[in-house]
Amino acid sequence: MKFNKLNIIIVLGLVAIIGILVAQLLWTKQAYNLEEKKFSQKAHIALLEVAKKLYEGTNHELPSENPVQKVSNDYYIVNIDNDFEPEILEFYLKSEFEKANINTDFEYAMYNCHSDEMVYGNYVSLDKTKKQSSVYFPKHKNLVYYFAIRFPNEATYLFSSLKFWFVLSFALIVILLVYVYSILTILQQKKYSELQRDFINNMTHEFKTPLSSILIASNYLMKQDKIKQDEKLEKYTEIIINQSNKLNSHIEKILNIAKSDNAPMDLDKQEIEVVPILKDVIENIRLKHENIVANIEAEKDFTIAADPFHFTNIVYNLIDNSIKYCELKPEINIRLTEENRQIKLEFADNGIGIPSKKLPEIFDKFYRIPSPKSNEVNGFGLGLYYVKKICNLHHWKIKAANNPENGITITILIPIS
């Protein structure tokens, strides 16, 4: 695949989203570690306070060494060189954990020196309906009076405190998947578009060869005396030539559009006078449509920087459309004015008009307004698409609006350099 601008944008976008996602996952992991450390510190402080309270009112003093030891992530032991009751221990544990804002289930056990084993104390749950199950507490050597605390739901508790981080990570994953799906869809559509363009190019090229032969043969026939002497044969030959020329113009238009879509169109901008070009186009169209009425209203002789060939085509397309989509005697009023440092070029006709909802779509490629008149008129829906494309290349603005009575007005705004 050709490594063009679109591919570069796709790769950069994909790398950026993956980078953001990786960074988010690393931040989430860091946040979890910090939350785990914070929980461990709060549990440590709360258990130390419990140990101090168990020493109060006794003849023993709290040892200088820290009595709290963390055995694993959710398991702590507290060494108390003093005898204590389970009810008092549970009361202190509940009150200190509540002060430390440790809102998760816990269970505790105490060492019984008479039986030389850990005696299970109780499972304290915030949810009274939750099923409680005892867990084995191992015995620790060199300790006589001590108790152990386990937080069975510590991991769940920590995850619940990081809901925002996980929701954000999930959202980024969804965005990445949507982006990948969108890119695959765009690439698929691009492939189909290229296949369609190649098919149109090949088809039109194949049409041009037999069409050229038809035109050569028809023009040769027109010069024959027998054809000139027979009025019907001459008329039929003229029909063949006219229809062949019309078909040839359609093929040329399709080829030009396909070429401009495949590669940037080069403009040969020159300083040109607008009114003479308008008059030349009108004179050429009158050779084909003698009954048209075309008026030019210009405040002055305007000069613009434009490609003469393409600008002439724009004018021809707009006037030709006004004639084709008119059920009365065609009347086109062309106005040239200056407003807000812009040349305003308006083409107003008395045609059948366009439904307001369809106006934004008339410049789309291959689009034709569904109407009985459209079915009568030959075309591919490329004329206004070509006009809009040339205007965009010149950095002009173009818009369409319905007239109060009938017909439409196409307006081109050309900045004054």
Automatic annotation (TrEMBL):
Keywords: Kinase, Membrane, Phosphoprotein, Transferase, Transmembrane, Transmembrane helix, Two-component regulatory system. Pfam families: HATPase_c, HisKA. One of its GO terms (molecular function) is phosphoprotein phosphatase activity. The chain crosses the membrane at residues 7-27, 164-187. Its EC number is 2.7.13.3. Residues 202-417 form the Histidine kinase domain. GO terms for biological process: cellular response to phosphate starvation. GO terms for cellular component: plasma membrane. It catalyses: ATP + protein L-histidine = ADP + protein N-phospho-L-histidine. This is histidine kinase.
